[in-house]
Design goal:
With about 200 residues, the chain is mostly helical. It has 14 helices and no strands.
Length: about 200
């Protein structure tokens, strides 16, 4: 019967899930395994209102680190934002998996900003630069602006290979607004100072 109820949660729309949640709330408070399974399922489904209700009855040991990872894998960024907003729920996972998480975050500027601000954030330079390039390839200017806010985390001049590919990409696809954001990075000017390539890049479009 419990598995049947879990299947109901997974297959119905959120408003029905909330109704079933109220019916099962007492059981969920007592049954740690059932509650953890539901936390994982809802992080995949992206049912934000139901997830908020689960947070209210959560206990230490609930699988919120794994749920955070799932929310990134399945682009459930509202769930990710809830978990990143409570560091007690996300500390261990962010501390140990920052590089994996940031590689998946270029799509969403709000989540990217929360991840950068998390006290346990510890991604490698390489993973941050890879995520930066992904934001550009996705033409996500809002995310690129977040990387600019956090630009001092990186010795960008050590990553000329990435700049070369970024410049080429924006030229090929005619991304003028993105080019204007990229030109704000002091390291780009430092790397290509006085070069004909940079002058052409500034004047193109």
């Amino acid at each position: 019967a419990e598995l049947c109820n879990l299947q109901r949660f997974e297959n119905k729309k959120e408003e029905f899930c909330l109704f079933f949640f109220e019916e099962m709330k007492n059981r969920l408070v007592k049954d740690d395994e059932m509650r953890s399974q539901l936390i994982m399922r809802m992080s995949i489904k992206g049912y934000t209102n139901l997830f908020r209700e689960l947070l209210k009855i959560s206990k230490p040991g609930d699988r919120f680190g794994e749920a955070l990872n799932q929310s990134f894998v399945f682009d459930r960024f509202e769930i990710a934002n809830l978990l990143l907003g409570d560091e007690n729920l996300s500390n261990d996972w962010v501390a140990n998996h920052s590089s994996e998480l940031i590689r998946r975050t270029a799509k969403n500027a709000e989540t990217l900003r929360k991840l950068f601000k998390h006290s346990k954030f510890s991604a490698t330079e390489e993973s941050i630069v890879e995520a930066f390039r992904s934001a550009i390839f996705l033409n996500n200017i809002d995310s690129v602006k977040v990387f600019y806010e956090e630009k001092d985390r990186i010795e960008w001049k050590n990553h000329q290979y990435w700049w070369d590919s970024i410049i080429l990409h924006t030229l090929i696809y005619g991304l003028k607004d993105m080019r204007d954001e990229i030109l704000k990075f002091p390291s780009l000017l430092e790397i290509y100072q006085g070069s004909e390539r940079l002058q052409n890049y500034k004047s193109v479009f």
